[in-house]
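Input record (one chain):
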Amino acid sequence: MSCVLPYGAQSHLGLDLPDETLLAVFNEPHGELLDDPAAAVAAVLDEPLNFPALARATVPGDRIVLALEHGVPQATTLVAAVANYLVEHGASAGQLAVLNTPVAVAAGERDPRSLLPDAWRDEVALEVHAPDAAGSLSLLASNHEGKPVYMNRTLLDADLVVPIGCLRHEPTIGYYGQYGGLFPTFSDAQTQSRFHKPPAGARRQQAAKQREEIDEVGWLLGTQFTVQALPGGGGGLLQVLAGEIPAVFRAGRSAYESAWRCGVPRRASLVVASLAGGREQQTWQNLARTLAAASCLVADGGAIAVCTELAAEPGPAVTGLSRLEDRELLVKSIRREHAVDALEAIELARATEQTRVYLLSRLDASLVEDLGMAHISEPGDVGRLARRHESCIVLPNAQYVVPAAQE
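The corresponding structure, as predicted from the sequence alone:
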């Protein structure tokens, strides 16, 4: 049986394996990609879920902030569509601001205003959140424990905040649910560091406690409206949802599960996974998400091969994986340091400890091998690797997949 695995922005890998070897191929998520995402945005802003048309939520002179979460597919298209809608309905371009994350800037992603009309693009402010700069933060309130909650000053000063995010499966590394695109995303450095800390005990208990804190801050913020993308394969979009935050996420969870659940008859000795999409998808966080999904489908003693165009330098915690051979000591060290990429490092350490991981990327071979993975020098090596295994599952766009093995 032959199949084609998309990876990166526009790359493809052909695999030709015996029928009895190929257990499952998750070709595409269920649903058709949007032909015109901008038109879809305009439509849902006019008829949002459990909320009046967005045009009725603002008056001339309002300061409006579009709070952009990192890693949203077609982010520039979504930002332009929301901004165009607001300006067409009476908002002043000079009163609009886009609030971006420092992670997006460090990754070299496009200016989120790049698709705005030339006539007023430069009137729209762009701010990159600075979580460690006291001057860019304001006190929102104290939480129920009496601890101060600091948030981005521009966000708190706005008359209307429109979060723009990407729906994901819960739990997923770095995803905090319905208010996560605001908090801890645009909170202070100390709070972000606390959320990046890997759990020392039960992961579910920590996640539940974090969710309670996030929901409390969401209530304190008073933000009611959101725009969320349902991702498709290869950086496309299946749907855009907008409206009251709880209503959007209720509908979004159901739609995401329907689109991205991947059921397989049994685990395979090899899982070939990929990161498809442009630069915003080629991240260490998405590599960790891919390894987490693939690990659920690989047999004991098996292997995982991941095809990417990852070129970004790793963060401090991932880099630290090359310094200590004792993984137990390494995990303890990562928990102490509270690095921004601690969760990714823990997942990478866990995956390479339990399985053999092969990586096709744009990284130096020495770096890949120092991190405990085998470097794939060319795409054809993946096919040769697959032919040495008795069973194989092919998992494109694995950063989004909801894996489910029957055995």
